[in-house]
From TrEMBL:
InterPro entries in the cross-refs: AAA_dom, DNA_Partitioning_ATPase, P-loop_NTPase
Domain AAA: 136-329
Protein name: Chromosome partitioning protein
Domain of life: Bacteria
Pfam families: AAA_31 (PF13614)
Region forming the signal peptide: none
PANTHER family the UniProt entry points to: P-LOOP CONTAINING NUCLEOSIDE TRIPHOSPHATE HYDROLASE, PARA FAMILY PROTEIN CT_582
Length: 471
């Protein structure tokens, strides 16, 4: 047994605690107002920490990219060839700096991509594929277990897609607003969040119901100020630009949480309102599915009404989890709750549809992937293999390694792609970046595969229609 001073046997620190001395260390009992003070302090601290990655004028800006980085990660050309092309085409972006050390904005990189897509080698992929005429793919990142790397994964997927040339819309549905902070968003109140989209959908449903009620000689449901104002909101009005030229944001802030209380009140008044379709309807009616290539939904760590809307709107569901028993167990329960919730909705809706002679409905996702995050191969490989075995084809094959670089980027409230590789040993940067490059590669494969499948279905339906027309 360990011994203390003068050879005395030491005891664990929870022994010999004097109740009187403990009481003397306590402050006065805490009243409700004390939380407001703590929140104010936290708010000031949050603003200060969030602005660590900002420019001196208080705005967030995306760094520039070197020729080495462009040729290694963004455009498949050799540095010497890129320099020759720049010299031969003075109309192209020339970058800043000396001839052997030029740096380019992402806008410049996107312009160079387009040039090489037209003039480059025909067997190389300079721009990412997206089929014409098909809507954006909506990807929801969700799990009701907190701390699994959900927002970090969603943010890096958005940035990966942006670097890959896609036009991305990020919708932050978590009232904590972490994604909004990462993307440098400013949200004054709930009317600049997704809340008015839900309110607008309910208001439209109420208008349709009132038309029926008035035709039947019944009194219409009243419209309050919130619903009247929501009808004037367009999804496009909520979109704000970010410091990424091809990533836009619908942000979140604390008041968004009131949607979890307001939505069930509306549903009780109008039981026919399909509340789970609110976000889907907004994306469709607002034209956002045509304007963007990929829409990423970052959800709160709970299966509430906002998450239900995100899941119903998504084509692809991504579920991050750590390689621990508790996170594996929690994720299994999350899948069970998804089943219970959506099967219950399907059963209730289809009971009505069958009675009315209408076709039945069902929820459907193109793909679901569970992704192991914060992975430490030296300690977690065995458990990760067990998780892989039980979740089977739900799992991604790549496991997202934990790296010191991720932690350093997090301290700056930035993504790994926003950090300057000159702040690291180059090998460290390459290893750290590979963590998210590999994740994006696997998710991109899923996105492209589902787009291809949709394209084949659309062409088959068109051919069938043409054949029927000829007949």
């Amino acid at each position: 047994m360990a011994t203390g001073p003068k050879g005395k046997e030491s005891l664990p620190p929870y022994f010999n605690i004097d109740p009187k001395a403990a009481a003397e260390k306590l402050a006065e009992p805490i009243h409700t107002a004390r939380f407001a003070k703590a929140a104010a302090f936290a708010g000031r601290g949050r603003d200060d920490l969030a602005k660590r990655g900002y420019a001196p004028d208080g705005k967030k800006r995306l760094r520039k990219f070197s020729i080495w980085e462009i040729c290694k990660y963004l455009i498949p050309v050799a540095p010497a060839h890129l320099r020759r092309v720049l010299k031969a085409h003075p109309d192209l972006p020339q970058g800043d700096g000396a001839s052997n050390s030029k740096w380019f904005t992402l806008e410049d990189v996107l312009t160079l991509r387009e040039h090489f897509a037209k003039e480059g080698a025909p067997n190389r992929e300079y721009t990412s594929w997206r089929p014409e005429g098909l809507p954006a793919k909506v990807v929801a990142v969700a799990n009701f277990k907190g701390g699994v790397g959900k927002t970090s994964t969603a943010a890096h997927l958005a940035m990966s897609a942006g670097l890959d040339g896609y036009k991305v819309l990020v919708i932050d549905l978590d009232s904590q607003g972490s994604m909004t902070s990462i993307m440098g968003g400013q949200v004054a109140d709930e009317w600049e969040t997704a809340f008015p989209l839900l309110a607008r959908d309910y208001a439209q449903a109420l208008q349709r119901e009132n038309t029926v009620r008035e035709a039947a000689g019944q009194a219409p449901f009243p419209f309050d100020e919130t619903l009247t104002e929501a009808l004037e909101v367009s999804p496009r009005n909520l979109v704000q630009k970010t410091h990424w030229p091809n990533i836009d944001l619908i942000g979140a802030q604390l008041n968004l949480y009131w949607a979890e209380f307001q939505v069930p009140v509306w549903r009780m008044q109008l039981r026919s309102w399909a509340l789970w379709d609110s976000l889907s309807n907004a994306l469709d009616e607002g034209g956002l599915l045509d304007e963007y290539d990929i829409i990423l939904l970052d959800t709160p760590p709970a299966l509430g009404y906002l998450t239900i809307n995100a899941l119903a709107a998504s084509d692809i569901l991504l579920v991050p989890l750590g390689a621990s028993f508790l996170e594996f167990d929690s994720t299994g329960r999350f899948f069970d709750m998804i089943y219970s919730t959506f099967a219950s909705i399907e059963e209730g809706e289809n009971r009505i549809r069958r009675a009315d002679g209408l076709p039945e409905m069902r929820f459907e996702w193109d793909a679901v992937r569970a992704l192991i995050t914060r992975f430490d191969a030296s300690q977690q490989t065995d458990l990760a293999n067990v998780i892989q075995a039980y979740f089977g084809d739900f799992m991604t094959t790549y496991r997202q390694d934990v790296t010191a670089m991720v932690g350093q980027a997090g301290e700056q409230v930035s993504g790994i792609y926003e950090t300057d590789y000159r702040d690291f040993n180059r090998d460290t940067y390459v290893r750290g970046r590979e963590t998210f490059d590999q994740t994006w590669a696997e998710i991109k494969q899923v996105i492209l595969g589902t787009w291809w499948r949709d394209l084949q279905m659309a062409e088959a339906e068109k051919q069938e229609g043409d054949d029927n027309g000829k007949a």
